Amino acid sequence: MDKRDKKRADVLKTKLQKLQQLLSAAKQQMDDPDEARNLEKQIAEAKAELDKLK
C-alpha cells in the first residue's frame, strides 16, 4: 500500500464513521425512510472501496 492508498483508506474510515453516525440518527428519527436506505448504500460502497484498497 503506497502513501496515496493509505491516505485514501484514512479518508474512507473517517467517512464510514460519519455515515454510521448519520445512519443511527436517521433510524431514530424516521422522517424520511429513503434517507436510511441511501446511507446504507453509501456505507456499503465505502466499505467495498476500502476492502479493494487493502
Task: Explain how this protein is built.
The protein is mainly alpha-helical. It is built from two helices and no strands. It has helices at residues 3-28, 33-53. Helix 1 packs antiparallel against helix 2. The longest helix is centred in the first third of the chain and has 26 residues, at 3-28. It is elongated, with a radius of gyration of 13 Å. The termini are close together.
Question: Helices, strands, pairings?
Answer:
Elements: H1 3-28, H2 33-53
Share in helix? over 70%
Q: Helix- and strand-based class?
A: mainly alpha
Radius of gyration: 13 Å
Quickly count the helices: 2
Summarize the structure.
By secondary structure, this protein is mostly helical. It is 87% helix and 0% strand.
Please describe the structure with a list of short key phrases separated by commas or semicolons.
54 residues, mainly alpha
